[in-house]
Write a structure and sequence with these properties.
By secondary structure, the protein is mainly α. The protein has a single domain, classed as Rhopdopsin 7-helix transmembrane proteins (Up-down Bundle). The protein contains 11 helices and 3 strands, in the order βαααβαααβααααα.
């Protein structure tokens, strides 16, 4: 193939969620509301953790960082998807396509490692409570967050290396609402079987290793508290239920997409929507609805906000009159 053919494709066509023109306005309204809920819900968690001194603990520090990554996961493709629902020609430039590939693996890879860090935090809190504040110091928490971003960066860089130099000179339709790496590599003008295997192996290794670490961590925690009092067991189960639910919701689709179908690299749109839209909106709901401290802190934040708004209104009224 000549060099002149390597850069013939300058943009890709995203086929989106549905080809039905009648359904697209409804999808726009639904996903707009979901995206708004993701941003508001996760921002509320970050604001609550930062505003309440009683929540300045390792667990809530990591939870606030999880909310931030969830906002990033939802934002790398959703705004583009929403705008595409309003237009007939759903195109994306080659550079923007590579940017989506970069960010999806950066954020999801970082979130996997952060969930492992949160499991380690729960292990220390439940199994080594007397040494908790010493082990989970502020410095350690910051290091854990930095490690999650570093691993995400290394992961996405290795993934992008498979794609950036591929020659694209023919078909340019991506059967999804964002540029997913397996689908994009299939459009290259050469045999990408080996590259596809490397992509699956890379993502599969990170997904499975993180998931196994989480399973081991939570198993050790449950075994440790099994012989303790019923109250300790109940408290541990209550704490772990939210964490385990989030882990299953996040890793389920990722493992199914990148690990299970070894002979197929197509991405199920339902699963793609699940881990880019529904998981980021379920995380704040799961962690707040089952957490009394978070609900109490949010109630106090609401009261302070309403009080401040009322006082501001009184001052404005007094000045104007």
């Amino acid at each position: 193939m000549s060099e002149t053919n390597y850069s013939r494709v300058t943009e890709f066509v995203l086929l989106g969620l549905s080809s039905s023109k009648e359904l697209q306005p409804l999808l726009f309204v639904i996903f707009s509301l979901l995206y708004l809920a993701i941003l508001l819900g996760n921002f509320l968690i970050i604001l609550t953790v930062n505003s309440d001194s009683r929540l300045h603990t390792p667990m809530y520090f990591l939870l606030a960082n999880l909310s931030f990554i969830d906002m990033c996961v939802a934002s790398f493709a959703t705004p583009k998807m929403l705008s595409d629902l309003l237009v007939e020609h759903k195109t994306i430039s080659f550079d923007a396509c590579l940017a989506q590939i970069f960010f999806v693996h950066l954020f999801t890879g970082g979130e996997m490692v952060l969930l492992v860090s949160m499991a380690y935090d729960r292990y220390v809190a439940i199994c080594k409570p007397l040494h908790y504040m010493t082990i989970m110091s502020r410095r350690v928490c910051i290091i854990l967050v930095l490690i999650s971003w570093f691993v995400g960066f290394v992961h996405t860089t290795s993934q992008l290396a498979f794609t950036i130099n591929l020659p694209f000179c023919g078909p340019n339709e991506v059967d999804s609402f964002f540029c997913d790496l397996p689908l994009v590599t299939k459009l290259a003008c050469l045999d990408t079987y080996v590259i596809s295997l490397l992509i699956v192996a890379d993502s599969g290794f990170l997904s499975l290793s993180s998931f196994l670490l989480l399973v081991v961590s939570y198993t050790v925690i449950l075994i440790t508290v099994r012989n303790r009092s019923a109250a300790s067991m109940a408290k541990a189960r209550s704490t772990l239920t939210a964490h385990i639910t989030v882990v299953i919701l996040f890793f389920g689709p990722c493992i199914f997409i990148y690990v299970w179908p070894f002979s197929s690299y197509s991405v199920d749109k339902v699963l793609a929507v699940f881990y880019t839209i529904f998981t980021p909106i379920l995380n704040p709901a799961i962690y707040t609805l089952r957490n009394k401290e978070m609900k109490t802190a949010m109630s106090k934040l609401k009261s302070r906000t309403l009080s401040s708004a009322q006082n501001y209104g009184i001052r404005v009224f007094a000045i104007t009159h």
